[in-house]
Amino acid sequence: MAIAKIAPSMLSSDFANLASEAERMLRLGADWLHMDIMGLLFGDAEEECLLTWHFVPNLTIGAPVIQSLRKHTKAYLDCHLMVTNPLDYVEPFGKAGASGFTFHIEVTRDNWQELIKSIKSKGMRPGVSLRPGTPVEDVFPLVEAENPVELVLVMTVEPGFGGQKFMPEMMDKVRTLREKYPSLDIEVDGGLGPSTIDAAASAGANCIVAGSSIFGAADPGEVISVLRKSVVESQNKN
Ligand SMILES: O=C(CO)[C@H](O)[C@H](O)COP(=O)(O)O
């Protein structure tokens, strides 16, 4: 069975106090720390993303920040790279101390095999993510490969910003993945919190990324525990 992992999205933390925010989340029960690595610009259309050499309309953090944070924590740093050229970042993120390296299928159609190999060679766990408009079938070959990804991240908002509305229609992708791959780590990201977790957990997600619902709560530890309880209870039912 895939183990429940609750991963606060550090995108919603106070970046000026990243180390203490990380320590606070771990103390409150977080399993992983989710790090959103965003390149520049945008484009709904994949062609536009490639032409402009950017992936989402925001800029966040890079390998130097991961390296700094690594000096303060031994935690699993679950890095989600929203960039158009992930291969360029494998070496720097490996050196910086990233634990997981999740790239996007939309920009790696031609080189995912090389990418997975390279991620593993740097001691990181490879994952693949898909935007809401990308069919789930696109990631099957990466899970079934001889050298496979170990996590699939189903985006439940259009990547780029925290605080957006959860897209319940993405749960069909999660259900399909869970039926096909019983022990795969299936992660969901975007709009997760106490009011949406049951949908994700019952569909079969076991890794839960949540930013604003945790950092914006009066009692973030209680939110972490509600998220975990929902995943564990759903798993026990099945
Ligand atoms: O990847 C992301 C945005 O691209 C964030 O991790 C995600 O949106 C989490 O934030 P929130 O829980 O506030 O929706």
TrEMBL record:
Domain of life: Eukaryota
Documented EC number(s): 5.1.3.1
Active site positions, chain numbering: D36, D189
Pfam families: Ribul_P_3_epim
Cofactor: Fe(2+); Zn(2+); a divalent metal cation; Mn(2+)
Keywords: Carbohydrate metabolism, Cobalt, Isomerase, Manganese, Metal-binding, Zinc
Record carries keyword Manganese: yes
UniProt: substrate binding residues: S9, H80, G160, F161, G162, G163, G191, G211, S212
Cofactor note: Binds 1 divalent metal cation per subunit.
PANTHER family given in the database record: RIBULOSE-5-PHOSPHATE-3-EPIMERASE (PTHR11749)
NCBIfam families (alphabetical): PRK05581.1-4
Family statement drawn from the similarity comment of this UniProt entry: Belongs to the ribulose-phosphate 3-epimerase family.
Record's protein name: Ribulose-phosphate 3-epimerase
Organism: Eleusine coracana subsp. coracana
Upper taxonomic lineage: Eukaryota, Viridiplantae, Streptophyta, Embryophyta, Tracheophyta
